[in-house]
Each structure stands twice: as C-alpha cells, then as structure tokens.
Amino acid sequence: MGEHIDLPAELRTLARARGYRLLSELLLHGAASCGADEIATIDPEAVDSDELDTQYVAAFDLGVPPYASTFLERDGMVGGAVTRAAADAMQRDGELPVTDEVGACHLGVLLGHAARLCATGRDRDAARFVARHVLPWLPAHLFALESLPVPFWTRVVRVALDVAVAHVGEAPQPVASVGTDEDDPLRDPGAGLREVAAYLAAAARCGVFLTDAECSRIGRTLDLPRGFGPRRARIETLLRSAAEYDGLVPLCDALDAVLMHRRARLHQLAEEWADAAALQRWTDRIDATRCMVATLRAGAQSVAAERETVP
C-alpha cells in the first residue's frame, strides 16, 4: 500500500482552489470551457462533447436551475433575498460577483468565489462562504438532477458537494431556512388545487424540486396531460386532470413515491456526514409534504366513496 502524504495546508488550499475553479467553469459555461484532461478528472468516459452539451441543456436550462434561490426562496425566483445575500457576502469579501449575465446565487458563481478566496489564501473565509451559501441547498439540487438522464452533470454536482463537505468539515451549520409548517396549503379551508400546485412547485416549501421529467412520467403512467407553460402551471394541470378523471388517489400515490425516494436519498447522505443538520430541514419539509399529500388523498377517497353511494 502507498504511503499517505499529508500535504501542507497551503498546497491543500491551492488544490481546492483549482477544484472549485474547474467546477465553476463547467457549471457556468459547459464542457467546452474546459480541456479534455479536465473533463476526464470528472468522468474518464465523457468523451462526446456534443452529448455533454445536450446533457447540459437538459440538466440546467430545461431541468433543474442551479440557483440557490430556486431552492431557498418561497417563490423560487432569482433576484430576491437569497441572491442579494450571496452578492453582499462576495462584496464583503472584497470581490464583486462575477455573474456574466447569471444571478449571484448561481452555483457556478458561488464556487467561483470560493475558488478566488482559496487562491488568495483565504481558506477559512471560503469555508464559511460555502457553508452559508452552498451547502444548505446543494443536496436538494443533486437529488433533483438524479431524476434526469444527465449522468455527467449529476456527477459534476456530486463532486461539488463532496468537495464542499470536505472543505467545510463534516458538520456544516447552514443558516438558510427551508419552509415552515404554516406553508401547508391545506391549512386554509378555502385552498384549492391551484394553491397545492404552487406549494409543490416551490422546493423551499415542499422540500423537493419536482422536475418536469418526473411530472411527465407520472402523467404518462396515469394517462394524464401535464399541460403547458411554467412548471407550476404544469403541476396544476396534472392535479386538475387527475381530479377530473378520478385519478387523484393514484396521483397522490405517485407523488408520495417521489417524496419517499428523496427522503431515502437524504438519509443515505446523512450517514456520510457526522452532523446532518443541513439535511434535517429538508427531511422535515418532505415529511410535512407527505402529510399534505396524505390529506389530499384521503379527501379524494372520501369524494369517490360519496359518489358510489349516490343512486
């Protein structure tokens, strides 16, 4: 067996800076921004540049937006408090956000800032920045990507997560909050499927980012249309179609299966971390959403039973 070499702290910081830089370039500009040897450090079998470009569009442009705001803002919109907090943190570190027409809370921008801090010897500042602005939402982003046929970019985000966890330590303490029990749309007796759809479309509220691909698979399985337009509208169409065609019970079962799978992935990741505080917030939201889905399912069953008793 080879002898373990403990690198000096300065070399570890520089190596970390190079890693963050590579991940930042990939996430901001795609595989074309990096050389074949750098791509091979992520996946030695990723040799088809056209395929990587196609995957990139499917992963981030059409799939799961790589923005902290998508996961931490109640409406999932970029440009609010989460984006401003990231930009302010960069300015306090003496750096202007290098956004290049994307929001300051873009994962590539965040990792790029960490790279610059490490490159100038500010490893502790970089670790604090990553703990506050990256780790609170990156696991949820990774698990959403896993639902898409984009293996290279899923691996890129998994590597980013591993690097971030190793950098911060195995007990990250994020400050970003994720939802509250008051987010349950069924707490309001007057709420309808529109409110349920808005809830399910917001990762910060329901605990998962429900991808268009997942909605499409569920719709095809249950023979339900998913509609057009924004993701929230498509989720609402799925719910309304299910209610119209007596498919709300199986739809709730399908949604619960997605929620259980994401919760299982959180549990798997928690076993790798010494302290899973960063993950418990997401688990709690998923559990609350499962209760909401169970209530919706029970209501649909009650309506179906009443119909059967009507002569």
Written description of the protein model:
By secondary structure, this protein is mainly alpha-helical. The protein has 2 domains: 9-168, Orthogonal Bundle (TorD-like); 181-309, no CATH class. It has helices at 9-29, 36-42, 49-61, 68-72, 81-92, 107-119, 123-133, 138-145, 151-168, 193-200, 203-206, 212-222, 231-244, 248-270, 277-309. Helix 7 crosses helix 9 (151-168), helix 8 (138-145) packs antiparallel against helix 9 (151-168) and helix 13 (231-244) crosses helix 14 (248-270). The longest helix is centred in the C-terminal third of the chain and has 33 residues, at 277-309. It starts with 8 loop residues before the first helix and ends with a helix.
List keywords for this structure.
15 helices, single chain, TorD-like, 311 residues, 0% strand, elongated, mainly alpha, 2 domains, disordered N terminus
Low-confidence stretches: 1-5
How does CATH name the architecture of the largest domain? Orthogonal Bundle
**Helical segment tally?**
15
| Overall mean pLDDT | 87
Distance between the termini: 79 Å
Per DSSP, what share of the residues sits in E-state strands of 2 or more residues? Answer: under 5%
Strand count? 0
Return the CATH topology of the largest domain. Answer: TorD-like
CATH superfamily of the largest domain: TorD-like
Number of domains: 2
